[in-house]
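Quick note —
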Amino acid sequence: MTSSIGDSIHLSLFGESHGPAIGVVIDGLAAGIPLDLDQLQAQMEKRRAKGRLSTARQEGDQVEIQSGFFQGHTTGSPLCLLIRNQQQHSRDYEATKTLLRPSHADFTAFEKYGGFQDYRGGGHFSGRITAPLVAAGAVMLQILAAKGIRVGTHIARCAGVDDRPFPSGEPQLTQAIAALDQAPFPVLDREQGDAMAAAIEAARLEGDSVGGVLETAVTGLPTGVGEPFFHSVESVLASLLFSVPAVKGVEFGLGFAMSDLRGSQANDPFQMDGGRIRTATNHNGGINGGITNGMPLLVRTAVKPTPSIYKPQQTVDYARRENATLVIQGRHDPAIIHRARVVVDSVVAFGLCDLCCRRFGTLWQLEGFPRAFDRGPDLGV
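Predicted structure written out below.
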């Protein structure tokens, strides 16, 4: 099992859903980065289950720093963030441990690990493991914010209900990101958010679940970030996003909609804007050739309906090798998309920090390190 990723910054996850603790180790952080622990905990709060739209499992998700942090700053050694599990109900899974839950990793895990995997709550495959991802992302978001780089995600679509799209102007987009940071239910149109919440509640009452699409925007990125071919911005971010449980699709800019356009419609014309080279449109989502072009980065992520539902489902008993009917017990979300938005913010922030360190070096992480190369070399023209 591989639970590590990163190049200049290395991230390693550990723990299982029903184990004593889960966490993450971040290696490659510069020494001297100030961390606001209250802000870190505020990010964890966005992921926490609340109300009838989420699971009844109520974890405190208090982050304990085990190493790499001293007197308010990173030390340069690996930063270890630990989150203790306190609300496990492992008995909920004992009676059905060999009944393969549809759309979960049960079957594939049995096949790959021979039954030695921790089956309780999905073990290391559980969405619970996204909690340390959010803790790591909180660190990365603080690094990016010190550079004037802002990351925000809204629910673009859920249960057939569409939110208002992100504004196209960069100042307005940055304001929208700031508003989302304070929003308990991440939408731009509150009425549409209420309609989404009602649809989620309706699915819950029927023992069912819903999915949706998250849309993420990043402003303030410098130009020239990304390492084609295999470490392009799309390659790195897509790899991270597809690592998030329940993500089944990722697109940048107009994404698949571009396939229906002509080149004259899809291309983004260049123009001068206050001494800077910009594009008149942003159909490519701020990326050309796998490299940032200075426009806002736009990415959409498809999240499938929560696979744990309370309706009877056809399945197989893995031990007996016979057909069976599964009726799950325990505590499960009718939708995870509103909790997943902060997970998406977190992995996008990690990927961008890693790419920026490849471009500018490890010291780029420090506040005050110059945002050089925005204009590129002087070509004498």
